[in-house]
Design brief:
The chain is an alpha/beta fold and 438 residues long. Helices cover 46% and strands 14% of the residues. It is globular.
Length: 438
């Protein structure tokens, strides 16, 4: 399946690149120079909208659409949704045909690709019709590509260690102070729990299968994955230490043996060691707490990433964005609908945290008292960490990182390569992907 994903991502990039000249040309025509979003139409208007997600997201989104259409009966929203694995092929095909939906759910790994090819509208051109006053400027920055705002974050996530308090208790191990703990503390805690588990459960599950871990590891080591120009700048020694840490945990028995790790990884969240009460700790995005709590039936606690409690180390990851097509013929209506999606309490009551903790600070404060216990813990976690500057957006070509980091983590765990060689190979391949996309 990994090779299939790489092929799909490559197809997405090639499809968009093949029409980039047409799209860039289109961006310089007609309404792009107008002040604001323009005037709303008195006649009937149809907007197309697309997203990926599960049945709950689809139901919620359709309820939001229905509520909007009641308020604006002359505007009809035509909805289209698919699974994530199919979404990008479909969107690439639509974009190549200059038929990008008016409203697009966008992902961090692809936003710069679509924006740089001219497929997305600079939302800052919509003026006051799309109100972003309730967003922290550093949060809005995660939707910027060069000087344009090409996506407004819907929700925010941050990396966390999810701890199973029941397994800590069974092992007779105290939950560490997450404001001061180091990686040495983490390793020793995990080793003690594994020893107490006797093979029934482990101290931690291994990680290293997506780029969030690399990004935060880099920031906590005075490094970063990309610079603001989209170049791959992370140091080889930073990557080496990242994979060495994961290997050390596995070799010490603090994490499961490689075959078990890889098998569980293929099964997704529900099959993970964390979700099946097979590990006392796991590294996850904080908004996954509710799903993990439901799966385990246990009390799960969010702990800060080791050595990341200092101001500036953390960063907020957008769960996803709302974006718009650069070729839309209905800018005013697009702005009105986006404003409803992002700023209305009515939409927030329906959506709650299904697309992540609301990035809109006013909406987050409004919705928090209405949330369940675990969702409130997710919000509280974001409130107590101290994020630094926004992480540079993934450059075109960078979407290949997920398959690369997964492959090299597996190679290191099975000792088919060393952490140092994995670092050099990863850097070479990711740099090539990024440079070839320019």
């Amino acid at each position: 399946m990994r090779n299939l994903k790489v092929t799909r991502r490559t197809a997405v990039a090639l499809s968009i690149a093949s029409v980039s000249a047409v799209l860039v040309s289109a961006c310089g025509t007609a309404d792009s120079t107008e002040e604001g979003a323009g005037e709303l139409s008195d006649g009937p208007v149809t907007l197309s909208m697309t997203w990926w997600g599960n049945d709950t997201r689809t139901t919620n989104t359709q309820e939001i659409i229905d509520a909007f259409e009641v308020k604006h009966p002359n505007i009809t929203i035509e909805a289209s949704f698919t699974a994530f694995s199919e979404y990008w092929d479909k969107l690439a095909t639509e974009t190549a045909a200059r038929n990008t939906p008016d409203i697009v759910q966008m992902d961090e790994k692809y936003i710069s690709t679509y924006a740089s090819r001219g497929a997305l509208l600079d939302l800052s051109e919509l003026g006051s019709t799309l109100n972003t006053d309730d967003y922290d400027p550093t949060v809005l920055d995660v939707g910027r590509v060069k000087d344009g705002l090409y996506g407004v974050p819907i929700g925010l996530n941050a990396y966390a260690v999810v701890a199973n308090t029941d397994l800590f208790q069974q092992a007779g191990v105290e939950i560490p102070d997450d404001t001061t703990w180091t990686w040495a503390d983490f390793n020793e805690t995990a080793r003690q729990i594994s020893a107490a588990g006797g093979g029934n459960f482990y101290g931690t599950q291994a990680w290293g299968f997506e780029d969030g871990g690399i990004r935060l590891w880099a920031r906590s080591h005075g490094d970063q994955l990309y610079d603001d120009a989209g170049n791959v700048v992370i140091r080889p020694e930073t990557l080496t230490s990242f994979w060495q840490q994961i290997l050390d945990l596995t070799e010490s028995g603090a994490a499961p043996p490689p075959p078990e790790t890889i098998e569980k990884q293929k099964g997704g969240l529900s099959a993970s060691f964390t979700a099946t009460n097979g590990s006392a700790m796991g590294v996850w995005w904080n908004n996954q707490l509710t799903a993990l709590s439901k799966a385990t039936g246990k009390e799960m606690k969010l702990l800060q990433y080791p050595e990341a409690a200092t101001s500036g180390t953390y960063y907020f990851k957008p769960s996803m964005y709302w974006s718009a097509s650069s070729t839309t013929e209905h800018r005013a209506e697009v702005a009105l609908f986006l404003d409803f999606l992002l700023n209305s309490e009515e939409a927030a009551d329906i959506q709650q945290t299904e697309r992540g903790v609301p990035a809109n600070e006013r909406i987050r404060a409004y919705i928090t008292p209405k949330l369940g216990e675990t969702d409130q813990a997710v919000v509280e976690y974001l409130d107590r960490i101290e994020p630094g500057d926004a992480e540079p957006v993934t450059p075109p070509g960078g979407s290949a990182i997920e398959s690369l980091v997964s492959r090299y983590t597996e190679e290191v765990l099975f000792k088919r390569t060393t952490p140092a060689d994995a670092a050099n190979g990863f850097l070479k391949e990711l740099t090539t992907e990024v440079e070839n996309a320019r």
